[in-house]
Amino acid sequence: MTVDMAVLRAEFPILSTQVRGKPLHYLDNAATSQMPQAVIDAVTTHETQARANVLRGVHTLAERATDAYENARADVARYIGAAAPEEVVFTSGTTSAINLAAHSFGALLSEGDEIVFSLLEHHSNIVPWQMLRDRRGVVLKVLPVTDDGRIDLDCLDEVVTRRTKLIALAHVSNVTGAVTDIARVVAAARDVGARVLLDGAQAVPHGPVDVAGMGIDFYAFSGHKVYGPNGIGALWARRELLDEMPPFMGGGEMIRTVTVEQTTYAPTPHKFEAGTPPIAQAVGLGAAVRWAMALDLETATAHVNRLTGRILDGLRERPGIRVLGPLGSQGRAPVISFEVDTIHPHDVCTILDHHGVALRGGHHCAQPLMDHCDIVGTTRASLMPYNDDSDVDALFEGLDDAMARFA
Amino acid sequence: MDTDLYHARILELARDTSTEGRLDAPTASATVNNPLCGDRVTIDVIVENADISVLGHKVRGCALCRASATLIGAHAPGHDAASLKVVAGAVTAMLKHGGPAPDGPWQALEAFRPVADHKSRHDCVLLPFQALVDALDQAD
Ligand SMILES: Cc1ncc(COP(=O)(O)O)c(C=O)c1O
What we know:
The complex is a heterodimer. Chain A is of the alpha/beta class.
C-alpha cells in the first residue's frame, strides 16, 4: 500500500505556500512539525465555542473548556501508553517538562546522589541537571557516544553506580537520529534502583510510544513536534512518583486549600499545573495525537524510511559529505545530520532556502556533541510522513548548487 | 537563481587567508560567540599612538563571517578606535536599515548588501565587527 501523498499533503495547508518564489520543501520537522487542518480546526473551534478558564468556573463554557482540556490529557495518555490520564502533566514543552522533573524529583535527591546523561543530549536535558547539581550537590556522570552517533550503552556498567538515582537520556537524538535501546538502559537502572527519564521530543513525532511497557519512570515531549501547537507538551511520570514529588511552581489551580500560613495541594497532576494552563494548545495537542493515531503508521513509516534511505544514499554518493549518525535505516529516526566539506551549515541552509528547502544548520542545541566531534555544527534534514520525493529531489538539487558555488 | 548573497566577491573574500592568524603579543584581544550557530571570532590588535598597527584574527564561522573578517584584516590597520566604531555602526545600519556603505576602502562592505534581506544572517557579518569593537574597548 502506498500513502496517498496528494491527500495527505492537502491536509497541511502550509505545504502549498511558497518561499522565495519556490514551492516549500519543509525538511525542518525535527525543529517544529506542521499542523494538519484538523488540528487548526480543533483550536479554532475551541476558541470560538468553548473558550473559558478551566477547573474553577461553573458556567457552561467553563465546563466545556474543562472537559476539552481533560479529554486532551486522556488522548495524550492513550498516545504515549500511560496507565491513566492523571500521570500526564501538561507543560509548555519538553524543556519545561525536564525542568519540572529536575526541580520536583530533584528535591528528593541528596548531595552525592548521581545523575547520568549522555554527551549527545539536547541542552534541555543537560542544563537543568547542572542547575540541580549547583542547588543540591548531586554528581553528574556522562555516557559517551559511539562513532556512528549512538549513546554508548556499553559504558553503562562503568558509569552507573549504586549512587545513581536517575538516568536521563534522549529516546531519539535530535542530531544523529539514533534511537536509544531503552531495554538496556532500564535493565542497568533496575540493577541499582535508579529511575529512567527519556527525552522523547524526537521519538513521539514518529508514532505512539509505550511508556508503561518500556519500564521507564519519566517521559518528556513537545506538542509542536508532533503536529500540535506551540506552547504545550507533557511530562509523564508514574503515579506514585508524581504523588511523592513536591510541586514545582505555586499559584492558582494547583491547590486544595490556602491560608495565609499554609497550603495543601491539589492531587496529581493538577498540583504540577499552577496557573491558567495553555488550554487551546492542549486541545490542539489532543487533536494532534488523535490525528497521529488515525494515520496508517505502518505505511507512513515505510514511506518515511524509504525517503530517509534516499537521503542517506544521496549523501553518501557525494564526495565531501559526511553523515553524522547511523548510516543504515535500522535503529534510526528520519533525522539526518551531515557535514559538507568546506561549507558552513548556515551557508548550506541559506542556499537551500533559495531552493525552497527548509533545513536546520548549526549546533542543534547539542554543543557538547559538536565539541566532541570537533565541528561547529551540522546541516540537518528531518522528515515527517507528509514529505515526498519532490522534497528529497529539491534537497539534492540545492546541495549540488551549494557545492558547485563553493567548489 | 537568486542567491546573489554568495556572489564571486564574497566567496573570494571568504577564501582569502592573507590576513588570518593570531598575534603573539597583542595589546588586546577579544573573542565573541554567536550562540545561534556556535560561530566564534577572535580579534587581536596591537595599538600604537591610538591607531591599530597590526591586527590578527581567527574565525570559526561561515563564509559571510570569514569574508567580513578578511575586510577588517585588510582595512582596519592604520585607523583609530573612534573611526572604526563609526564603520561598525555604518555596517550595522547598512544591513538593518539600508544605509550607505562606509566611505573610503570600507566601500568594499557594499559586497554584503544582499545579506540585508536575510535577517538571520546579519550577525554573521557583524560578529567580526563586534570582536573588533570589544578588542578596541579593551585596548582603550
Ligand atoms: C531531543 C530534544 N530535546 C528537547 C528539545 C526541546 O524542546 P522544546 O524546545 O520544545 O522544549 C528538543 C527540541 O529541539 C529536542 O529535539
